[in-house]
Write a structure and sequence with these properties.
Elements lengths: L9 E4 L15 H14 L3 E3 L7 H11 L6 E7 L2 H4 L9 E7 L2 H6 L5 H17 L3 E7 L6 H13 L4 E5 L7 H14 L3 E5 L7 H10 L4 E4 L13 H12 L10 H12 L16 E2 L2 H9 L17 E2 L7 H10 L6 H18 L5 H15 L5
Parallel strand pairs: 1-2, 1-8, 2-3, 3-4, 4-5, 5-6, 6-7, 7-8, 9-10
Helix pairs in contact: 1-10, 5-6, 6-7, 7-8, 8-9, 12-13, 13-14
The structure holds manganese (II) ion.
Manganese (II) ion binds next to loops.
């Protein structure tokens, strides 16, 4: 399938909705405003900003966000009944995700309903919401465990009732990219409306499944900054932006250099610090220690560079440690103004290895100076 059916994939960031559903995460209105403004400044075309049925405070905060004059199109999340989306007029948000369970598991054991009644519900409620002046995305909850034939029927019903988009939710995060590609491909072939992928990371496959859905013809991707969200979270915005670019050459219109500061902002506001190893935005993901890699990078950076850190406003860092080679040691010390002989570099490596195993961290400059002095003293012992 050709992802170029549309010139640009639309990212719909749900940090302020599914992201806030992470255990223990709750944003103040000031934090919501800061996150919304940062997403908007980055060029995110859509963001999901809350759940009107949660109450008057949530609705007031949605109104505040809608009043910021953001360029992004905003949407809110509602269950598929009028008591939920009936709160929407007056919020300043015209697009709603109307969520309906679509797997037999959830239809029977959560909704207490059956397939025919769900089809009737979709026909009736989408039409009613449209009559209220709302634009509708139908969110198929647990779509990944639904019968695809029934999912198609439901999507056709949504389309006929006036929905402009469906959201394919891998609610429990069980798909792999091949399965995602196959199902979204079937939906794409049968439907005219837009298709959004909403992936969860329970198997660590949320980004992979999002990219697979785009390859199969999905037009929209639901993301969260840092992959916040229920359980293991959603597809991380930063991974989806760079993944679409790197693997498919697709430009999302989002400035990658703004992603690391946004990640820090959301890490602080969510109380969820980033792992140093978090792809693209973790503090150590462009740092290199092993002798073979550092030597290769110093010869030609392309030897070990997949993603160019400069795109993210970052740079490669050479770190000394247990796996350092002579070349790296000489390079790092040269930056500190010391030009080492091979013999001295080898002496320093002994001290570096001891330091690394004891402290589990790279040495600071004062420690490097001490290692050099120790190694020098061992090579040229002072005779009294
Ligand atoms: Mn979700």
């Amino acid at each position: 399938m050709d992802p170029s059916h549309r010139s640009r994939i639309i990212l719909d960031d749900t940090t302020l909705r599914d992201g806030e559903q992470s255990v223990g995460v709750a944003f103040t209105i000031e934090e919501k405003i800061a996150i919304a403004r940062a997403l908007d400044a980055l060029g995110i075309p859509e963001m999901e900003v809350g759940i009107p049925a949660m109450g008057a405070v949530e609705r007031e905060e949605i109104r505040v966000l809608a009043g910021l004059g953001l360029k992004a199109r905003l949407l809110v999340w509602c269950r598929m009944h009028a008591a939920d989306y009936g709160h929407c007029p007056g919020l300043g948000v015209e697009l709603v995700d109307l969520s309906v369970p679509i797997s037999d598991q959830q239809i029977e054991h959560k909704l207490g309903s059956d397939r025919d009644r769900v089809l009737d519900l979709i026909r009736r409620e989408v039409a009613r919401a449209r009559h209220m002046g709302l634009s509708v995305c139908v969110g198929f909850e647990d779509a990944s465990r639904s019968d695809t034939d029934f999912l198609l029927l439901a999507a056709e019903a949504a389309q006929a009732a006036g929905a402009e988009r469906i959201r394919f939710a891998d609610t429990v995060g069980i798909l792999d990219p091949f399965q995602t590609f196959a199902i979204v491909g079937r939906l794409r072939a049968a439907l005219d409306l837009d298709i959004e992928i909403h992936a969860h990371n329970d198997l660590g496959l949320a980004t992979a499944n999002s990219l697979a859905a785009v390859r199969a013809g999905a037009t929209h991707v639901n993301t969260t900054v840092n992959g916040l969200g229920e359980r293991a979270g959603n597809a991380p915005l930063e991974e989806v932006v760079m993944g679409l670019k790197q693997t498919m050459g697709l430009d999302t219109g989002i400035a990658p250099w703004g992603l690391p500061p946004l990640s820090e902002l959301v890490a602080r506001a969510s109380g969820r610090p980033l792992s140093c190893q978090k792809s693209l935005v973790g503090s150590l993901v462009f740092s290199h220690e092993s002798g073979i890699h550092v030597d290769g990078l110093l010869k030609d950076v392309r030897n070990y560079q997949g993603v160019d850190p400069r795109e993210l406003g970052r740079s490669h860092q050479l770190v000394l440690g247990k796996h350092s080679g002579r070349h790296a040691i000489q390079h790092v010390y040269a930056q500190l103004g010391h030009h080492l002989s091979s013999e001295l570099a080898d002496g320093i490596l002994t001290a570096l290895r001891h330091h690394a195993t004891q402290t589990k961290r790279p040495p600071v400059p004062e420690e490097l100076t001490r290692f050099m002095e120790q190694a020098r003293a061992e090579i040229n012992p002072v005779c009294n």
